[in-house]
User: Fold this.
Amino acid sequence: MRHEVFISHTTGDRLKADALCRRWRPTASAAGSLRATSWGQDYAEALVDAVASCRALVLVFSRHANDSAHVRRELELAVRRGVPIVPIRVEDAPMAKTAT
Assistant:
């Protein structure tokens, strides 16, 4: 399934990501696209496919995202695939200088 935008966020920022998603598409949620994967499809595989096929990745940036290895992997995948990244800072948190 082709996704126009992939919203990268942590569980701690799910409500903020859902609010952003609803502003763009009132009937959607940020987590809904991966929940709609085919039965039996591997979640990690679905995530890779979603990031690889999207037109842009929106990063919901917060202290939670800054500390998340999962968010970093999604960003690295987007960079490797040449997917534009649009950061949206939802709190005043400093960005990590190095990967953990």
